């Protein structure tokens, strides 16, 4: 967790955004930084443009700010492919703003913020959890910590998240978690492929077994090597089997909005 100094900001254009206008914005931002912080902030000479030109990174010695571009809703239908920025990316960035506002209104409790940071650290250490995007983690933390008569201790909520995933919360047919920022009762696990859902559940099940037999510290500090453990404290673990095997030539259908929603809140995780 230490040293992650990346913050995201969504910039909404009132006009139709083009690559040229994004470049002009990046140059203006760098010029303003150098004018206001002539000695205290070292900014790179050039910004790093996203491959799809839907944003750019401003990099300094202290950290990185990712600028994500969007436009007002009335402009979305006016975007022309090849001339303007990608409309799907614009919609995702607008969705990130809704996510940020929801988090501020419903999940800004200090314990919840800490739990989110711990869960992101857990995701980064275990390959099977990599499919969890920041929005899923926000909702999982809120579901585990704050949807009780009393706020749970953070260590209990941390374990509860893993238990929920191990119990199949994000498997097909599960109640899952309904996205509070979308209409139509959209469940967030529909953003994952069947293979990702299965691997996520299987990874969480193994972590639950490790924690149940005194391996809580191993989960907090470990990585994928923990999944190779055959026993702990004299308890022998049986092998976990995949429930889903993708057939050759089979194409899975995933919700078109399944691209990872960007984090918007200025953070230093």
From TrEMBL:
Nucleus among keywords: yes
Short name of any one Pfam family annotated for the protein: DZF_C
InterPro entries assigned to the protein according to its UniProt record, in alphabetical order: DZF_dom, DZF_dom_C, DZF_dom_N, ILF2
GO MF, one example: DNA binding
Compartments in which it is found: Nucleus
Keyword annotations of the record: DNA-binding, Nucleus
GO biological process terms on file: positive regulation of DNA-templated transcription
Record keyword Nucleus present: yes
CC per GO annotation: catalytic step 2 spliceosome
Ranges for domain DZF: 1-256
The protein, known as: Interleukin enhancer-binding factor 2
């Amino acid at each position: 967790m230490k040293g992650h100094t990346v913050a995201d900001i969504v910039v909404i254009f009132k006009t139709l955004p083009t690559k040229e206008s994004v470049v002009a914005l990046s140059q203006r931002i760098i010029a303003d930084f150098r004018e206001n912080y002539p000695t205290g902030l070292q900014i790179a000479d050039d910004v790093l443009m996203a491959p799809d030109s839907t944003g750019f990174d401003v990099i300094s010695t202290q950290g990185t700010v990712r600028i994500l571009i969007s436009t007002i809703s009335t402009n979305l239908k006016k975007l022309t492919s090849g001339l303007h920025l990608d409309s799907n990316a614009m919609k995702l960035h607008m969705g990130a703003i809704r996510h940020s506002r929801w988090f501020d209104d419903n999940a800004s409790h200090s314990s919840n913020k800490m739990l989110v940071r711990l869960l992101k650290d857990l995701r980064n250490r275990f390959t099977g959890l990599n499919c969890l995007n920041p929005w899923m983690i926000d909702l999982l933390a809120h579901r585990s910590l704050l949807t009780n008569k009393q706020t749970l201790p953070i260590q209990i909520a941390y374990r509860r998240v893993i238990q929920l995933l191990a119990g199949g919360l994000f498997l097909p047919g599960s109640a899952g978690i309904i996205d509070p920022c979308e209409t139509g009762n959209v469940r967030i696990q529909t953003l994952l492929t069947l293979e990702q859902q299965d691997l996520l559940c299987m990874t969480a099940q193994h972590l639950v077994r490790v924690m149940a037999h005194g391996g809580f510290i191993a989960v907090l500090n470990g990585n994928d090597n923990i999944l190779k453990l055959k026993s702990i404290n004299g308890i022998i673990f049986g092998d976990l089997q995949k429930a889903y095997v993708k057939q050759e030539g089979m194409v899975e259908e995933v919700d078109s909005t399944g691209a990872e929603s960007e984090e918007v809140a200025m953070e230093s995780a």
